[in-house]
Amino acid sequence: MKILMPILLALVTTVASAAQWRTDPLTPLDQRYMEERRQELNSLVQISMGRSFGHGRDSDLRLIQDILDRKLVKPDETAQLQAMGIIMGEHLRRENGLRWVIYSDAKGRSRALEVPAKDEFLFPVTQISSRVRVGAEVDVQAIYQRLEQEIKRIKKKIIVR
Predict the structure, then answer these.
(1) How many helices (H) and strands (E) does the chain have?
(2) Is 16 helix (H, G, I), strand (E, B) or coil?
(3) Which pLDDT does position 117 carry in this prediction?
(4) pLDDT tens digits, residue range 56-83?
(5) CA spacing 20 to 30 A to 16: which of 44, 45, 70, 84?
(6) Which residue ranges make up each domain of the chain?
């Protein structure tokens, strides 16, 4: 089983046994947390830019890029940076038939997108925040495209158990 995790600018694949990780459905608290982060970010862009999220994937990805380019969110504002990842992840989920889960391992608990029946996961919530935190340039469209390519690769793969 492979687990996909973001490390700076690349997706890194790690092999783990089932005993090392587990998944659970999102709790109502997780769902509320994700919705509140999206609403907070949307309020910020409405006030700062007179725009809002919810006008389609391409519009939302451009808006995230504009927020980053204008430095409206600082590197230490992790919750708002992760809200950008939640918005990006929600588009990935809808367009690719994925589902949000809580992924738990020795490092902790994360919100992840599961590719059903493949035991593989993507972590879009931290894709942007991890890059901004280290001062790296962020190309939101490129991140999204890499994640979509990875989803296609995973879906094509045959699982042998």
Answers:
(1) 5, 6
(2) coil
(3) 87
(4) 999 999 999 999 999 999 999 999 999 9
(5) 84
(6) 2-154
Taking only the tens place, the pLDDT of each residue in 13-54 is 334 455 699 999 999 999 999 999 999 999 999 999 999 999
User: Which residues are 100's β-sheet partners?
Assistant: 113
CATH T-level fold of 2-154: Four Helix Bundle (Hemerythrin (Met), subunit A) (1.20.120)
Structure tokens at 147: 């994640």
Say which residue the tokens 């492979």 belong to.
2
Strand, helix or coil for residue 139: coil
User: Which residue shows structure tokens 């380019």?
Assistant: 69
- Alpha-carbon torsion 14, 20, 25, 26, what sign? negative
- The amino acid occupying position 87 is I
DSSP H or E segment with residue 104: strand 99-105
DSSP character at residue 125: G
Q: Provide the pLDDT for residue 157.
A: 85
Structure-token match 């790296």, residue found: 136
Q: Is 14 helix (H, G, I), strand (E, B) or coil?
A: strand
Q: Answer for the pair 103, 110: CB distance below 8 angstroms, yes or no.
A: yes
